[in-house]
Amino acid sequence: xxxxxxxxxxxxxxxxxxxxxxxxxxxxxxxxxxxxxxxxxxxxxxxxxxxxxxxxxxxxxxxxxxxxxxxxxxxxxxxxxxxxxxxxxxxxxxxxxxxxxxxxxxxxxxxxxxxxxxxxxxxxxxxxxxxxxxxxxxxxxxxxxxxxxxxxxxxxxxxxxxxxxxxxxxxxxxxxxxxxxxxxxxxxxxxxxxxxxxxxxxxxxxxxxxxxxxxxxxxxxxxxxxxxxxxx
Amino acid sequence: xxxxxxxxxxxxxxxxxxxxxxxxxxxxxxxxxxxxxxxxxxxxxxxxxxxxxxxxxxxxxxxxxxxxxxxxxxxxxxxxxxxxxxxxxxxxxxxxxxxxxxxxxxxxxxxxxxxxxxxxxxxxxxxxxxxxxxxxxxxxxxxxxxxxxxxxxxxxxxxxxxxxxxxxxxxxxxxxxxxxxxxxxxxxxxxxxxxxxxxxxxxxxxxxxxxxxxxxxxxxxxxxxxxxxxxx
Lengths: 232, 232
Description:
Strand content of chain A: 5-15%
Helix content of chain A: 55-70%
Mean pLDDT of chain A: 88
Pfam families (chains A, B): dsrm, Ribonucleas_3_3
CATH architecture of the largest domain in chain A: Orthogonal Bundle
Oligomer: homodimer
CATH superfamily of the largest domain in chain A: Ribonuclease III domain
Enzyme class (chains A, B): hydrolase
CATH class of the largest domain in chain A: Mainly Alpha
Shape of chain A: globular
Distance between the termini of chain A: 62 Å
Number of strands of chain A: 3
Organism (chains A, B): Paenimyroides aestuarii
GO molecular function (chains A, B): ribonuclease III activity
Domain RNase III (chains A, B): 8-133
Number of helices of chain A: 10
Strand order of the largest sheet of chain A: 1-2-3
Structural class of chain A: mainly alpha
CATH topology of the largest domain in chain A: Ribonuclease iii, N-terminal Endonuclease Domain, Chain A
């Protein structure tokens, strides 16, 4: 089997049917570093399909919640959706499907960071929608994403941001806090950010991650558990 | 024809087919002030359908832009979508369809403000999706909303926020500005907000509207035109 045959059978296995327009899926796995274009000069990479997939995913999840949480009001539905359409979770689904192995890129895939997994998943969803329509796309989303959320009760109790929880705690208890950048000495090929978190002017936690936001969240989570332990 | 017969035929005319589950459309036009619930105690008003319709609308527009702007990158598509899914525009479509005449409410409809028109439109879209599926819903959105956006070039040049345009102008030209609340003396039954806009410490415009945000936008638009006139 040649390269394109291998690609087509890998896609068929992931999406559960033989794609009609393989070019859509090739686009869904083409990184912009390749600078590929169509004959008429349109950019050919996954970013446009990612935009589309993100929107389709949002509506399928909205419909799922509408049907499965008849007692939830608009605020509840919005909150639950943002818990499902969560970067970390979409990244984990993309990883489980091993999408990164199909990427065509000039840049080194190892340097992309974690979000590439979720981005490819969204682009794939966009490609399925254009290739086979809404119903097939919805089925793919149910099978690969919504299957984990049958138990909405569990999701209700899931904490989405330790940073906001930590800040809330400080405000309630009139404690001061500040996040501070510090130099990262790690030897990773991917750039990392290091954050020190001070609680009442004492360093309570430190964390590093591939973005400032993630490092802050990680530090806040550590601080939150440290405080919990102290209170016991 | 009795009341429910009149309602059903009004809906049929708007959506272009005879609804299968009229209860969905009754819900889409029920305001929460009625405190209606189902037999099992679930709230029965348009807010949940509005959440759903908003998501479906977002994905139909994303797909429309993906197909109609093959040269637009992700940033362009995002920007164009926010120009279409614009409160003022959705309100105007809701008004054109005269949705407000179908509302069932305990509160006085005249006091609702403009956004009720767009909210009802979104709830109606949610009801069509549940009643008849994605394809029928998409057709409704094309016929009533996207028909106005065949010319994407026109949309590209549309200014969406005079406030940001005005602020940009001030920053570029090192001018100061400030928005100030002032007392509203209008006799409207609906609460209005009044905003004074100062440019280099001189009042350049004043506006009133049903929200602070809208009043600021209106004042910025007036200021922008005043400045344009001055520069000519």
